[in-house]
TrEMBL record, chain A:
Lineage top rank: taxon: Bacteria
Residue intervals of the NADH-quinone oxidoreductase subunit D domain: 150-419
Subcellular location as annotated: Cell membrane
Subunit structure, as described in the record: NDH-1 is composed of 14 different subunits. Subunits NuoB, C, D, E, F, and G constitute the peripheral sector of the complex.
Catalytic activity: a quinone + NADH + 5 H(+)(in) = a quinol + NAD(+) + 4 H(+)(out)
Gene name per UniProt: nuoD
Name used for this protein in its record: NADH-quinone oxidoreductase subunit D
Molecular function in Gene Ontology: oxidoreductase activity
Family annotation (InterPro entries): NADH_Q_OxRdtase_suD (IPR001135), NADH_UbQ_OxRdtase_49kDa_CS (IPR014029), NDH1_su_D/H (IPR022885), NiFe-Hase_large (IPR029014)
EC code(s) of this entry: 7.1.1.-
Matches recorded under SUPFAM superfamilies: HydB/Nqo4-like
Keyword NADP: no
From TrEMBL, chain B:
Subunit field text: NDH-1 is composed of 14 different subunits. Subunits NuoB, C, D, E, F, and G constitute the peripheral sector of the complex.
Function summary: NDH-1 shuttles electrons from NADH, via FMN and iron-sulfur (Fe-S) centers, to quinones in the respiratory chain. The immediate electron acceptor for the enzyme in this species is believed to be a menaquinone. Couples the redox reaction to proton translocation (for every two electrons transferred, four hydrogen ions are translocated across the cytoplasmic membrane), and thus conserves the redox energy in a proton gradient.
Protein name: NADH-quinone oxidoreductase subunit C
Residue ranges constituting the NADH:ubiquinone oxidoreductase 30kDa subunit domain according to the UniProt record: 52-173
Length: 420, 186
């Protein structure tokens, strides 16, 4: 009954409005020149690669304004983290930028290590660098190949996804997982780089450059691709800085800010690498910068593998680093520490730490306030996506719908990181 | 050679920690620009200069830092809210992280204010990046940023009637008994 009543009410409103229009506004009904179309793009649209909703006002093909709505996969990580012991927060970081979870995991471990004052041995730092750079390559490969898909080239996507698969196989050897890796531990890595992992890594380092060259040959000077991306969605360096851009998107605009170079962590100062920058900050520049960063990451991995020092793969920090299983079964102290760590019985020192790493999308920061308890008092994630996605409406206005999709794709907004 | 070396050695010893030297320089500049009374609780946890100021001053301080020709704090790294329910009259806070990319200086500014009157001037007119961050802080903590162009919830649903990151809302239902663990205090 209630539904019928409501429907009757709606019909009445429509009839009244029609009657009014018949009286006064009839001529305007046929005049579409002033009329804007409201287009609801998303939240689940195959071209947005994630849960993004944009309500666009369109004037024909042109976008007049856009209002993004976010939060569709908000999981309240900052709240959940306030009740979890530090090691259990790693699994939350996995689910932020799930295209490059090792960077999130290891960045979080480094934050806790900074709070605890634990120094990680060189070998662990180098292994971390290798894993983080592999993650960066996987991240950039996805972003760039999907940009290819959005401009009509599906082949490159399938071609480099095979390489991402090989990177995931290396993750498997190192931590046992593929997508949500939960890699490393506070104090180092959970296990040493196995000979099998090193073999896979070396084989991949040999085979990948050829694939990458082919991928670049397909896109970099491709007429069709360039027509779709050059001068699409440009942003100036000043604006990008004001909007809090970081990572490849900021570097494409011409600012050479890279956390790895400016505030080196995990021994990045030991490696030689260049920071590619663009000039226009348009979609093409973002694409080229990411491609070049893949080459630079390869350079770093090659150096790290060559210089990989011997020694322990974790710090001697029994209060925080889980002892090995055989030790737990044989040794009373190890058993106690195992119990205390797993049950989250370890109190952290009082302090506040901000630690930033260069994530796949830019400066990934962890702001941790500890009040001396077992869990963080407050943990804030600086998610690069969340901050730079604000600029999307401004970049999309004035372009066509197809360009807006390409711009979104080239910004590499990851829903998990956006909504945390 | 020897006298020179010995003369140089103490200087190196004095300038042992470049971060401390830099922080002292930044702090001196801050005092010079805004007066010593503007900042309290100056600390350097893990090398990051931290100062507390007031919400009346915060907009002028951040605008001044952004325009200052020497420091050039052009970059807002992040801002977030915080809740200390036991601090009478200073229950809520907003924490700003600024970064000067030209000189690689990071600065953390804090303001605290009563939960009964959670208004703070917006800094969206200084940094566009602050727009969503302030919306997030409003969403989580109920901090009202006066002058914000569009202060609505961002991550949670519109019709939520509380601010979930405040400490008064425990993560789990307090009446549940199946999860209490008397031996380990959880």
């Amino acid at each position: 009954m209630a539904v019928n009543d409501a429907l009757a009410g709606t019909h009445k409103i429509i009839e009244e409005a029609a009657a009014q229009r018949h009286g006064q506004l009839m001529p305007l009904l046929n005049d579409f020149s002033q009329e804007l179309t409201t287009l609801n793009l998303g939240p689940t649209h195959p071209a947005t690669h994630g849960i993004f909703q944009n309500i666009l006002q369109m004037d024909g093909e042109r976008i007049v304004s856009g209002v993004p709505t976010i939060g569709y996969i908000h999981r309240a990580f900052e709240k959940i983290a306030e009740r979890r012991p530090f090691y259990q927060i790693t699994t939350l970081t996995d689910r932020m930028n799930y295209c490059s979870s090792p960077i999130n995991n290891l960045g979080w471990h480094m934050t806790v290590e900074k709070l605890l004052g634990v120094t990680v041995p060189k070998r662990a730092q180098y292994i971390r660098v290798i894993m983080m750079e592999l993650a960066r390559i996987a991240d950039h490969l996805i972003c760039n190949s999907i940009l290819g898909v959005d401009t009509g080239a599906f082949t490159g996507f399938l071609y480099v996804f095979q390489e991402r698969e090989k990177i995931y196989e290396i993750y498997e050897e190192v931590c046992g997982a593929r997508l949500t890796t939960n890699m490393g531990r506070v104090g180092g890595m959970e296990r040493d780089l196995s000979p099998a992992a090193l073999d896979k890594l070396r084989a991949w380092l040999k085979s990948f450059p050829a694939v990458m060259k082919e991928f670049e040959a397909m896109f970099n000077r491709n007429r069709i691709f360039m027509d779709r991306v050059v001068n699409v969605g440009p942003i100036s360096a000043e604006k990008a800085l004001n909007y809090g851009f970081t990572g490849p998107n900021l570097r494409a605009a011409g600012v050479d800010y890279d956390v790895r170079a400016m505030n080196p962590y995990s021994s990045y100062e030991d490696f030689e690498f260049d920071i590619p920058v663009g000039t226009n900050g348009d979609t093409y520049d973002r694409f080229i910068v990411r491609n070049e960063e893949i080459w630079q990451s390869l350079r770093i991995i090659n150096q790290a593998v060559d210089k990989l020092p011997d020694g322990p793969y974790h710090a001697d920090a029994p209060h925080y680093y889980l002892p090995t299983k055989p030790e737990v079964y044989k040794n009373m102290e190890a058993l106690i520490y195992h119990f205390k760590i797993v049950m989250g019985e370890i109190d952290a020192p009082v302090g506040e730490v901000y630690h930033a790493v260069e994530g796949g999308n830019g400066e990934l920061g962890f702001y941790l306030i500890s009040d001396g308890g077992r869990t963080p008092y407050r943990l804030h994630f600086r998610r690069p996506c969340f901050i730079y996605y604000q600029a999307y409406p401004e970049m999309a206005v004035g372009t066509t719908l197809s360009d807006a999709i390409v711009i979104l794709s080239s910004m590499n907004v990851i829903a998990g990181e956006l909504d945390a | 050679m020897n006298p020179q070396e010995s003369a140089a050695a103490p200087e190196v010893a004095v300038a042992e920690d470049p971060i401390k030297v830099q922080n002292a320089r930044v702090l001196a500049l801050l005092h010079q620009l805004f007066g010593e009374a503007a900042f309290t609780d100056v600390e350097e946890p893990y090398g990051l200069l931290t100062a507390t100021t007031t919400r009346e001053r915060i907009h002028a301080v951040i605008a001044g830092l952004q325009q200052d020709q020497e420091l050039k704090f052009h970059f807002l790294t992040t801002l977030c809210g915080i809740n200390y329910p036991e601090n009478e009259g200073k229950e809520l806070g907003v924490i700003y992280h600024l970064h000067s990319l030209t000189q690689n200086i990071r600065l953390r500014l804090k303001i605290f204010f009563p939960v009964a009157d959670p208004t703070v001037p917006t800094i969206t007119d200084i940094y566009n990046a602050a727009n969503w961050l302030e919306r997030e802080t409003f969403d989580f903590y109920g901090v009202i940023f006066t002058g914000h162009p569009n202060l609505i919830r961002i991550l949670n649903v519109e019709d939520m009637d509380y601010h979930p990151m405040r400490k008064e809302y425990p993560l789990e239902d307090g009446t549940r008994e199946d999860k209490t663990d008397l031996f380990f205090g959880r």
